[in-house]
Specification:
It contains one helix and seven strands; from the N terminus they run βββαββββ. By secondary structure, the protein is mostly beta strands. It has one domain: Beta-grasp domain (Ubiquitin-like (UB roll)). The strands form two sheets. Strands 2-1-7-4-5 form a five-stranded mixed β-sheet, with helices on one face. The longest helix has 7 residues. It is globular. The relative contact order is 0.29. The mean pLDDT is 95.
């Protein structure tokens, strides 16, 4: 079975699934899906999966994701 390596917040993750949804990607990285959503980064493009946690994502090698908190932003 082929293992796919990708990153979430620069932390390496692996899967053998060809398709995961945003919530599965966050959960497998140990991120709370109730307070975060996933953003895929490709070059200068960003694709947000906010409110689309169940949307399937076709996984391939070296994909890059970041998690974004939906909680209140602290004001400095």
């Amino acid at each position: 079975m082929h293992t796919i390596t990708y990153t979430v917040d620069d932390e390496p993750q692996t899967t053998t699934s060809h398709e995961l949804n945003a919530n599965q990607i966050l959960s497998s990285a140990g991120i709370d899906i109730a307070s975060h959503y996933l953003v895929q980064i490709e070059g200068h493009q960003r694709e947000s999966y906010q409110n689309k946690g169940d949307q399937p994502i076709h996984m391939h090698e070296h994909m890059k994701f970041i998690s974004v908190s939906t909680g209140p932003t602290p004001v400095s």
